[in-house]
Design goal:
By secondary structure, the protein is mostly beta strands. It contains 4 helices and 38 strands. The strands form 9 sheets. Strands 1-5-4-8-6-7 form a 6-stranded mixed beta sheet, with helices on one face. A hairpin with a 5-residue loop joins β14 and β15. It is globular.
Length: about 500
C-alpha cells in the first residue's frame, strides 16, 4: 500500500514503547489541520501529501510524528555541541495531538479503526489533527461552607451557587482561593435549581432560584455596587418543589422570560420584570408582565452581606402553565435560535423522571416532539449551537439526543439517541455542555468524579476526583472562562483549569 518513493517514518521509532518492525505493514495517511484550530494555524499546519505510517500505530505514535514534522520537541538527552544546544533551545516544546478519522476520535490502532468504520486503505486516509484537550488541573477551592452545594452557574465572571441551606453565594478568584462574595438567604429549604442572565441594557444580573420549599424567586445583582437584592417572587404556577429553571433574553437586552418545572411535572412560563420595575413604584398594582402587586423588601437574613436598601419587589403570575410530564421535570433548556440571536427562543426542551423528553412551542404551549427513553433523566444540557441535548441518568450513563425539528411538529424531524460508554460508577448528578466547544461536555456523579467528554468518542477524555473524601458526592458543575467548577456534599467549591 506504499510505494518506494513515498515519505515514510523512521522504522526504528517507538510507538507506545514498542519498536516498529522494518517489515511492518504500512498505511498511507494525509495529515490535515482541523478547521476548529483558529489560532497559530501557520505554526501547526503540515503539507497534505500522503505518507506511510505503521498500520497499527495509535494516537500517541501519530502525535510523535506530527511533532517531529513540525520540528517541535524537547531537547535530546545527549549534548553533542554548544551549537546543537543552541539549536535545540530554539525548538518549540512538543504538544499532544488528537486525531479524527471520519469524524470520530481515534482511540484504536489505525487499521482497526479504519476497518470498524468501513474505510478502504487502498487510498490515503485523511487524519484531521488538533491539539489535544489537557486534563483538568485543580487550581483552587473555596473555604468549607455550612452545607452541601446543590447547584451552580457561571455568568459574567462570577460563579453563583445554591446550597442545601437555602443560601445563594457568589465566588470570585482570589489567588489560589475562591473568595465568597455576596451571600443571601433566599429560601427556607434546599435550592434545587439556578439560572442567571445579564441584562445588556443595565448593570444588573438576574439570578433565578427554585427550592424544595416550593418557592421561586429572582434576585438582581448590581456589579457596580456589589449588591444582591430580592427582585421578584413568582407564585401561582407550581404546587410542589421547584426542580428546574431557565432564564432567556434577547442579545440586545430588554425583555426576559423564564421557564420553571416542578416535582409533579408542572411547567410554567413567566415574564421577568425589567430593571425599571425593581427600582421604582410605577408598576404598583400590576403591569403588562402579569405582575399582581409589589411589596417592600424585607431583610429576613441577618447574616446576609447583600444590601438592605428597600425597593419594590414584584409578585409575578405565570403567563402559561401546563402539566408537561407525569413526574419531576429535572432539566430545562431553551431551544437554539439560529435565525436571530436578538430574539427570544421559540421552543423549550424538557427532560423528566418519567423517562421522557419533549419540545414545546412556547407561543402555543404545544408539545411538538415527544421522546420516550428507557431511564430516568436526572439532568439535561443543550449543545451551544444546536438542539442536540445530553442527559444523565441513575444508571451511570450519558445519553445524547438530537431533538432538532423542522418546526412542523413531526415530519422531517431528525431524532437520534446515542449512548456513551458507561464510565461513572454511580448516579450522574449534573451535566453541562461547553459554551465554546460543541463537541465537549462535562459530567459529575455521586461517585465523586468529574469527567470531560468529547462526543466524537464514546469514552471520556479525562476523569478527575472532584470531592475530598471517599463517599462524598459531586452534585453540580459549571463551565467558566477556561475553567470548570464543581461542588457537592463535601461543602467545598473546587476550580479546575482546562
Amino acid at each position: 500500500m506504499s510505494s518506494s518513493d513515498e515519505m515514510s517514518i523512521d522504522p526504528t521509532q517507538e510507538d507506545d514503547g514498542i519498536i516498529i518492525d522494518k517489515q511492518q505493514t504500512k498505511i498511507r495517511v494525509s495529515f490535515l489541520l482541523s478547521p476548529s484550530v483558529r489560532h497559530n494555524r501557520h505554526q501547526l499546519e503540515l503539507p497534505s501529501e500522503p505518507m506511510a505510517v505503521p498500520s497499527n500505530i495509535r494516537k500517541r505514535g501519530l502525535s510523535a510524528i506530527v511533532n517531529h514534522l513540525l520540528d517541535r520537541g524537547d531537547k535530546d538527552d545527549d549534548d553533542d555541541s554548544a551549537s546543537d544546544d543552541d539549536e535545540d533551545n530554539e525548538r518549540l516544546p512538543s504538544i499532544p495531538f488528537d486525531f479524527l478519522l471520519n469524524d470520530k476520535l481515534l482511540r484504536l490502532p489505525l487499521d482497526s479503526a479504519a476497518r470498524n468504520l468501513g474505510l478502504s486503505t487502498e487510498h490515503a486516509l485523511e487524519l484531521h489533527y488538533f491539539p489535544a484537550r489537557l486534563p483538568p488541573k485543580k487550581e483552587g477551592q473555596s473555604e468549607q461552607l455550612p452545607d452541601w452545594i446543590m447547584v451552580m452557574e457561571y455568568n459574567n465572571g462570577r460563579l453563583w451557587s445554591g446550597g442545601a441551606d437555602g443560601v445563594i453565594r457568589t465566588f470570585e478568584q482570589d489567588g489560589e482561593e475562591l473568595k465568597s462574595g455576596c451571600v443571601i438567604s433566599a429560601h427556607t429549604g434546599p435550592i434545587k435549581c439556578v439560572s442567571s442572565l445579564t441584562d445588556a441594557t443595565s448593570d444588573l444580573t438576574y439570578v433565578a432560584t427554585g427550592s424544595m420549599d416550593q418557592t421561586l424567586v429572582t434576585h438582581a445583582y448590581n456589579s457596580k455596587k456589589d449588591e444582591l437584592n430580592l427582585h421578584a417572587v413568582y407564585s401561582g404556577g407550581h404546587g410542589n418543589s421547584i426542580s428546574s429553571v431557565a432564564l432567556a433574553g434577547g442579545s440586545g437586552g430588554g425583555k426576559q422570560i423564564m421557564a420553571s418545572g416542578d416535582w409533579d411535572g408542572g411547567l410554567a412560563i413567566w415574564n421577568v420584570p425589567g430593571s425599571s420595575s425593581s427600582s421604582s413604584n410605577d408598576n404598583v398594582g400590576g403591569d403588562a408582565n402579569g405582575n399582581k402587586s409589589s411589596k417592600k423588601r424585607k431583610d429576613n437574613n441577618s447574616n446576609s452581606t447583600s444590601s438592605s436598601t428597600e425597593g419594590t419587589i414584584q409578585e409575578v403570575q405565570p403567563i402559561q402553565s401546563v402539566r408537561a410530564h407525569s413526574s419531576n421535570i429535572s432539566g430545562l433548556a431553551w431551544g437554539y435560535n439560529s435565525s436571530s440571536s436578538s430574539s427570544l427562543p421559540s421552543t423549550l426542551l424538557t427532560g423528566s423522571w418519567d423517562h421522557g423528553l419533549k419540545v414545546y412551542d412556547v407561543s402555543r404551549m404545544d408539545c411538538i416532539l415527544a421522546l420516550n427513553g428507557s431511564r430516568v433523566v436526572t439532568s439535561l444540557s443543550r449543545c451551544s449551537n444546536s438542539d442536540v441535548v445530553a442527559t444523565g441518568s441513575p444508571d451511570c450513563t450519558v445519553r445524547l439526543w438530537d431533538m432538532r425539528t423542522n418546526g412542523e411538529g413531526g415530519s422531517g424531524s431528525q431524532i437520534a439517541d446515542k449512548t456513551l460508554r458507561q464510565s461513572h460508577k454511580s448516579w450522574v448528578s449534573a451535566i453541562q455542555w461547553s459554551p465554546t466547544d460543541p463537541f465537549v461536555l462535562a459530567t459529575t456523579s455521586h461517585d465523586g468524579t468529574l469527567k470531560v467528554w468529547d462526543i466524537r468518542s464514546s469514552l471520556p477524555l479525562h476523569t478527575v476526583k472532584a470531592t475530598a473524601n471517599k463517599g462524598d458526592k459531586s452534585l453540580c458543575l459549571a463551565f467558566g472562562d477556561g475553567f470548570i467548577y464543581s461542588g457537592g456534599s463535601d461543602c467545598v467549591v473546587k476550580k479546575f483549569a482546562l
